[in-house]
Design a protein that fits this description.
- The structure holds two protein chains of two kinds.
- Chain A is 39% helix and 20% strand.
- In chain A, the strands form three sheets. In chain A, strands 3-2-4-5-7-6-13 form a seven-stranded mixed beta sheet, sandwiched between helices.
- In chain A, helix 6 links the parallel strand 6 and strand 7.
- By secondary structure, chain B is an alpha/beta fold.
- The longest helix of chain B has 19 residues.
- Classes of the chains: A alpha/beta, B alpha/beta.
- At the A-B interface, strand 2, helix 3, helix 4 and strand 9 of A face strand 2, helix 3, helix 5 and helix 11 of B.
Chain lengths: 376, 277
């Protein structure tokens, strides 16, 4: 029997993590993400998992990677400044291909910014926050039920592709309460990392000869291998100035970009005959739906494109939209970040208009409606 | 029969990257002898390091090994230990790694008293980056970022560890090798966080700039400077000037260990739930 609960967005993330088999959480308190840590601290001991509040954000990210290597699906949750501190180790997890999930409940910034207000201004940090070239998968749910579902998907993608997955939503959906259906265990498929067969003479943790995602052994399971943040050979040991560095880094990006069909997910709303499209995710997409209904009542043909996977960016799908409409409106809780990607992929085929807000308030449907009428 | 170091060395991964005269090889062998002495199963051992010369050691060791980011060894090690508390975890850092960039992690790991053996290989300098001063560089010593002599006050690593709550704290040197073997065995066997400061020599970036003509001079300095803790205690203050104690400096047998505390708490929670059901 599935359960129905009234849950806050952050609690739904924790519920989703537990459903996906997460058994380790390391974190550091930061508004507006803290409820995830509080929920996990209460629930993990009940299911044989472990929770630890570390001394800082950097420590939390390191512990999550250690926990995952030791065999537990691992989660951490943070917000803007904490997400900045996690970046070095997030890059480490990308290069070393350690699955884990990092939640960033976005608030205003830069610096301490608006800790209790919503923001979407970390969306480029999600993509480019750490150093070097690397793959990024980032999911952007906008409803509480969706946070539950997408958190499970985040763990599944993380395990399937041996890479950290970021979930980014704004404070509004993180703190919003809605009805959530939690199915019985097994109803939603849960993916576990592919392990190497037992009894191999030599296990190569980064052997790419049989595919872009090499099987991953956990520590203490008999394959004593080496993990390093240095560029490495298939056996995990450092290599310097070798063609291997380039081919391996290209593989890391390819294992995400080359699987866009599996990873990318988006929703459209009344977009079929639209002359104006709105590109929005998270709370701004909810406001956009109301604005679209109001505009449609007045006979304006407008629809929504809502990415649930924002990285890798849905290049092809947005380019298709750009071909068909006169204008794409991008409402953002920032002074213009994801609009740059919309501009890039639309390549001048239609006009692009932004609605930018960073004063701690949501973008209201009326604001979006006014813009729709302006560009009509 | 000669001691078989190869049982714990990864085939094909030598030679190491350390400079001639570096004492890390001495420590490496001491670690291997101590693992052999306690009959450590290699599959059940994780060795975690940060960044720097010392942090390359796990790569040569046949275990589950993790070379992490600068200063972060203890954070990764904590995650591993929390998830698999029944396994042996050794964290290995240099002086800069453990007490500068990783200083916060170091004191909090000590405070928790989590069952990790922390080996701080102190060579008083940032070796891999070319000889900048670290939190343990002696006053007045030349470093590339202290060209006029170090003015930075320095840490006494064992005192820092004791103050932060570690339940086993010791100091050894690369000169006093049999004593170091003994210390490592005791530290690894200790339940709770154990810290061993291992005093080392970096002839390349520290010694030659600071009046140690050759690597031997630095070993002889260790011989003259470090006294067994019991002997050190008995000396009058005027005779301990410029000397430091070595051996086990602090041991608390009844301190509770972090993972055991967590598991006891979790068990209590589950029993309560079952009782209600």
């Amino acid at each position: 029997m599935s359960k129905t609960k009234l849950l806050q967005g952050n609690d739904a993330c924790a519920e989703g993590a537990l459903y996906a088999g997460c058994r380790f959480f390391a974190g550091y308190p930061i508004t507006p993400s803290t409820e995830v840590a509080e929920f996990m601290s209460k629930e993990l001991p009940k299911v044989g998992g472990h929770f630890i509040q570390m001394e800082d954000e950097i420590a939390a990210m390191g512990a999550v990677i250690g926990g995952s290597l030791a065999g537990a699906k691992s989660l951490t949750a943070t917000s803007g400044p904490g997400f900045s501190l996690k970046q070095e180790s997030l890059g480490y997890a990308m290069l070393t291909e350690v699955p884990c999930v990092v939640l960033n409940v976005m608030r205003g910034g830069p610096s301490t910014g608006v800790p209790t207000g919503p923001g979407q201004s970390d969306i480029m940090q999600c993509k480019w926050g750490t150093h070097g070239d690397h793959p990024v998968i980032c999911l952007t749910p906008g409803y509480v039920q969706e946070i539950f579902d997408e958190t499970i998907r985040a763990f599944n993608l993380s395990e399937k592709y041996r890479t950290p997955v970021i979930i980014a939503y704004d404070e509004i959906v993180g703190h919003m309460r809605e009805r959530v259906e939690i199915p019985d265990a097994g109803v939603i498929p849960v993916i576990d990392r592919t392990k190497p067969p037992k009894g191999l003479d030599k296990y190569l943790p980064y052997d790419d000869t049989k595919g872009d995602v090499p099987p991953m052994a956990n520590f203490f399971e008999g394959y004593r291998y080496h993990v390093t943040g240095l560029n490495h050979a298939p056996d995990g040991f450092p290599v310097n100035a070798s063609p291997r560095i380039q081919t391996d880094e290209e593989r890391l990006i390819r294992k995400v970009d080359g699987n866009r069909k599996d990873i990318c997910k988006n929703e459209t709303y009344k977009l079929e005959d639209a002359e104006i499209a709105i590109f929005a995710y998270g709370s701004t997409a909810r406001g956009a739906k109301d604005a679209i209904d109001a505009a449609r009542a007045e006979g304006i043909k407008v629809g929504l494109f809502r990415p649930l996977t924002i990285w890798p960016f849905p290049d092809e799908a947005v380019a298709e939209v750009a071909k068909k409409v006169k204008t794409i409106i991008v409402p953002e809780l920032s002074l213009g970040q994801i609009i740059l990607e919309v501009q890039r992929v639309s390549a001048g085929q239609c006009k692009i208009e932004g609605i930018f807000r960073v004063d701690g308030d949501p973008i209201y449907p009326a604001q979006i409606l006014a813009k729709i009428k302006e560009v009509k | 029969m000669a001691f078989d170091y190869n049982q714990f060395i990864r085939a094909g991964k030598l030679p190491h990257i350390w400079c001639p005269g570096c004492t890390y090889g001495i420590v490496f062998k001491s670690i291997i002898r101590s693992l052999d002495a306690i009959k450590q199963n290699k599959d059940d051992l994780a060795v975690v390091s940060g960044i720097g010369c010392a942090s390359r050691l796990p790569g040569y060791l046949d275990a589950n090994t993790l070379h992490t980011a600068h200063g972060r060894a203890l954070t990764f090690a904590t995650g591993i230990k929390m998830v698999r508390p029944e396994k042996r975890v050794i964290a290995l850092s240099g002086d800069g790694d453990a007490t500068a960039i990783g200083g916060n992690h170091f004191i909090h790991a000590c405070r928790r008293n989590i069952d990790i053996t922390v080996l701080v290989l102190n060579n008083f300098i940032y070796g891999m980056t070319g000889g900048q001063h670290s939190p343990t560089t002696p006053k007045g010593h030349i470093a590339t970022t202290m060209p006029y002599g170090n003015i930075d006050p320095n840490f006494d690593i064992p005192k820092l560890a004791i103050g932060a709550g570690a339940s086993f704290v010791a100091r050894g040197t690369a000169y006093h090798v049999p004593a170091l073997d003994k210390l490592l065995i005791e530290a690894i066997n200790h339940k709770g966080l154990s810290v061993v400061e291992i005093v080392n020599a970096c002839p390349t970036t520290h010694g030659r700039r600071n009046k140690f003509k050759n690597p031997t001079d630095q070993l002889l300095w260790m011989k003259d400077t470090f006294l067994p803790a019991a002997a050190f205690e008995k000396l009058p203050p005027e005779k301990t000037e410029g000397k430091l104690p070595m051996g086990v400096l602090y041991k608390k047998e009844d301190a509770t260990e972090y993972c055991e505390n967590y598991d006891a708490m979790a068990q209590g929670v589950r029993q309560k739930i079952e009782g209600r059901a």
